[in-house]
Amino acid sequence: MAATLSCFSTSIINKSLSKTSQEFSKHSPLYLKPAYQTSLEKIILHQRSITPRATLDNNELVSVPLILQGVEDSVKVLKTAAENRKVAADEILDALTVIKSAKLDPSGFLDTLGGTESPGRTWMLIFNAEVGKKDMLKNGSYFPITAVQRFDAAAKRIENGVFFGPIGYLTFEGRFSWKKKILAFVFEKVKIKVGPFDPLQISLGQKDEREPSTKDPFFIWLYVDEEIAVAQGRGGGIAFWCRCSRVA
């Protein structure tokens, strides 16, 4: 399966990867393109119904406009990192911390994340970080290989895969549920492709149709617009993705 890879710019992404990862990316079954920018005001808080001051986790009172400005600046940092992968890890960690603390209104997240019709939208993992003591982010790094997730809001389906160009790919597919800003999921099958051979599909034995819950793996979505998405996993780690498009 041959295709091209470009997240905002193919050349920019390829420069950031190792030689091996670069070679994989050239043949990845993905084509990444810029998405349309969404106004931050459409997803920020409940501006018309909140008080003009807000309390952050450290109990320091700050004005809502200051919080919004901090989020906007942090989003710009993440978008720059997605474009060139040259932004320092500490700067990205600071940006993710600001977004996490802002507690944004998630009402439009799902439609932006998974679209309004099947097969949904795909997102490439750019950066992830662990959570240390006092909920501080640490050990942040750019993800070194092509990892992509697809969310289909209409069908409530999720697909998570890693792609190795002409060598092949490995994907997991299943169903998800959405409650407020929590996307819980259960994988039902795995698909493996090696070289020129047809993909091998294996059932994971999830035959029941129960709705996924927080007892299962889940993401807490902290920010989603048409270009990037930020989420915290069940284990506490935080990551961000850039929007991409997949071409068969």
Please tell me about this protein's structure.
The chain has five helices and 13 strands. Helix 1 (10-16) packs antiparallel against helix 2 (19-26) and helix 3 (64-84) runs antiparallel to helix 4. The chain is of the alpha+beta class and 248 residues long. It has a single domain (10-246), classed as Lipocalin, CATH 2.40.128. It has an eight-stranded antiparallel β-barrel. Strands 2-3 form a two-stranded antiparallel sheet. 33% of the residues are buried. The protein has helices at 10-16, 19-26, 64-84, 89-102, 109-114; strands spanning 30-31, 53-55, 61-63, 121-131, 137-142, 146-152, 157-163, 168-179, 182-194, 200-203, 218-224, 228-233, 238-246. Strand 11 (218-224) and strand 12 form a beta hairpin. The model is unreliable at 1-39 and 44-62 (pLDDT under 50). The chain is 23% helix and 36% strand. This is PAP fibrillin. It comes from Kingdonia uniflora.
Q: What labels would you give this structure?
A:
single chain, 248 residues, alpha+beta, Lipocalin, two-stranded antiparallel sheet, 36% strand, globular, PAP fibrillin
Overall radius of gyration = 18 Å
Order of strands, main sheet, comes to 4-6-7-8-9-11-12-13
If you average the pLDDT, what whole number results?
80
- Determine the structural class based on helices, strands and strand pairing: alpha+beta
Overall outline = globular
Number of domains: 1
Order of helices and strands: HHEEEHHHEEEEEEEEEE
CATH topology label: Lipocalin
